[in-house]
Amino acid sequence: MSTVVERTSAVPARVRSGRHSASAVVALARFEARELLLTIPVFVFFALYLGATLRKPLFSRDGMDDFPVLQNADRATQSGSLFLGIACLVCVHAAVLRSRRHGTDRHFGVLVLEPWQRTVAHALSVVPFAAVTAVVTAIEYGWAALKPGAVGRGSAAELAVAPLVVLLCGAVGVLLARLYPRMAGGPLFVVVGFATFMVASSVTGGRLHWLNWLQPVITEDGSPPVPSDVLGRPAGWHALYLVGLAALVLGLAVLLGGGRTRMLKALTFVALGATAVGIAGQSPNHEAALTEARAQLSRTPQTVQSCVAHGRSTYCSFPEWTDWRDDWARVVDRVQDLAGGAAGGTRLTIRQRIPVLHDLSSDSAMTPSNMPREVTVGTRWGGSRVPEFAVGVASVLVTGDEEAVPGLCDARVVTVMWLALAAQDDPVAALRSVSLNGGGGGSAVVMTPTEPLSMSAEQARIVRELLRRPHYEVTARVKAHWTELTSTATSQARVAELLGVPPAKGAAGKGEPCEE
Fold this sequence. Notes:
Layout (H helix, E strand, L loop, with lengths): L17 H21 L1 H20 L10 H7 L4 H16 L1 H5 L12 H10 L2 H19 L10 H24 L5 H20 L4 H4 L22 H22 L5 H21 L4 H13 L6 E5 L2 E5 L7 H14 L10 E4 L21 E4 L7 H15 L12 H11 L4 H8 L9 E3 L6 E3 L1 H12 L2 H10 L1 H4 L6 H7 L18
Parallel strand pairs: 2-3, 3-4
Antiparallel strand pairs: 1-2, 5-6
Helix pairs in contact: 1-6, 2-4, 2-7, 4-8, 4-9, 6-8, 6-11, 7-8, 8-11, 11-12, 14-15, 15-16, 16-18
């Protein structure tokens, strides 16, 4: 009886075909991505990210969202990505160390994949989350861009930041697992990294431009929108920096995992170069030139604006805001229709302006225009900006120019406020939105596009009483007594008498001083 001995291959059970090896890497990446989603931190932060992003367009009550400025809307997509990325970093780091925790590292010698290929698979497990982040970013931006009131232009580089941050965080989690194979490595890195940037920012006061832009996300919100030409954000260089850094971190992790191919080394070197080029491109600080350019636009906006006549007035705006002129015209026409005397036919110039900004994280008030019959309008629109603009229009119709508005404290305040609020669809809600005290009892500070307007308690009482009366009745009285209602010699008691409002007990007969 003969025995047939079949010789088996001495090659370990690793995939010899590059195609099969790639399939195995993808299969492991899919498994790890599914496991990653089931971890509590990633699941919770992923749900919060989706919920917060979808809540903004679906449930926002701020009317200014109806008129988005796209060079601000693209940056708004970045804010939540860092939290999702941190969750991915910590959980990917834990996933790479799973075999170490369970003592199964020794079994990998008989498996299909090399250690460096498993490293790649763990990094690829973050790709689905980055892809979903990119889709959510596109939906959020697309929702804003498709609105009829959208103006400006967004940046593809700004939109790429959110998914790139998620990819970068996943790659960092893998690299940390190779450098520091302890479970505390991920959370420790997050805490130390955050503390380092906080200390660096406090020491430098946030003045080092190159250091600030080493952070993954720089939203710079708080200021009113500015034209794209003076935005001053190195978005393209920053996106290149994130791409290069993510690839560099992944390349280092794979090298530490045992990958030593020439192709891998070459790609890591290219990633290092891309990172260096991105840092060099985003590091120059052009703050002085940008501040001067913005100041020039604030002082002489007419040098870059176009104007169009609409009805009784002329509307001038920056090129990216021309679509808002019709909305401005509707407000101006409604206010002027309520005015009496020559004010009803006064030709106004509505000019869009921006304040002088040193950076995009701070806001500042615009100084009143010194040009007669010129009304300032800003680069935000909708919500409370509409009645604020109406107050500015009414103020110029009554006083003649914006410089007289901050010191306006006589009975003309009543005329201004009624003109502005009566022109709104909901005058009472408009009063609440423009008054810092919410339109309640007592004195109030009323917001305008430039300097605020002060309204005394008695003036506010008269205005609220007028808003409760029939619109046509008050309009007839305003037109009939326009000259007295816009005179500096008219007392508040006389204004109340002319408009049919009973005076308050103890009201002064010859006007009241401004309240401090």
